[in-house]
Amino acid sequence: MKRDNEYEALLNYLLQKCDRFETIIRTDIISDETTDDKLNQALNELQPFLVSKIQGTEWHVNEISEGSVEIYTYQFNRKTLSIFLSYTDCFTDWQAPNFFEDISFFRFNSNQYILSVIGHENLFFWQIDDAEYQDLQKLGIELCLN
Q1: What pLDDT shows up at residue 1?
Q2: How far apart are the first and last CA of the chain?
Q3: Amino acid 129: pLDDT
């Protein structure tokens, strides 16, 4: 699959605004025995940047009614960006069972996300101001506002 240029541009933009990201592993869908090699490799590479790992049933953009998920919070920096780009070409790559599911990026020193994505549904949730909206438009990133 060819990398989406908007994906890389957006990740680089978020690097200027965010210091953490959160993603999950759907333990209700996959287990250690069925985890894809791609996911295991990414987990190993991201390990030095792990901030926290908890079990839960809900996260910033979604929830499940049965079972639980593992919620991972990592530092977001040039190294983790490089790791992203070695495993993913677009936000729809962020879906179980082959990779992490969903991703949220958090503003520096804040629990407020700037972007949360449900990859398998191609849903993007933004919390941006007018200046950030203009910045994204200049990067060629089209936003649909509701």
Answers
A1: 39
A2: 30
A3: 92
State pLDDT tens for residues 117-143. 988 888 888 999 999 999 998 988 877
- Residue 100 phi, psi (nearest 5): -60, 160
The position carrying tokens 């804040």 is: 110
Both structure tokens of 128: 């941006």
Hey, is 54 helix, strand or coil? strand
**What is the C-alpha to C-alpha distance for residues 100 and 40, in angstroms, rounded to an integer?**
10
Q: How far is CA 64 from CA 26, 49, 71, 87, 126, in A?
A: 9, 26, 13, 26, 22
Residues 104 and 116: their CA atoms lie apart, in Å, by 4
**Per-residue b or e along 67-91, where b marks 16 or more CB atoms closer than 10 Å to that residue's CB:** eebebbbbebeeebbebbeebbebb
Counted residue by residue, the chain has a size of: 146
Q: What share of the chain is helix, strand, coil (3-state, %, to 5)?
A: 35, 30, 35
Phi, psi of 103 (to 5 degrees): -155, 140
Would you call 142 exposed, middle or buried from its count of C-beta atoms within 10 A (0-12, 13-18, 19+)?
A: exposed
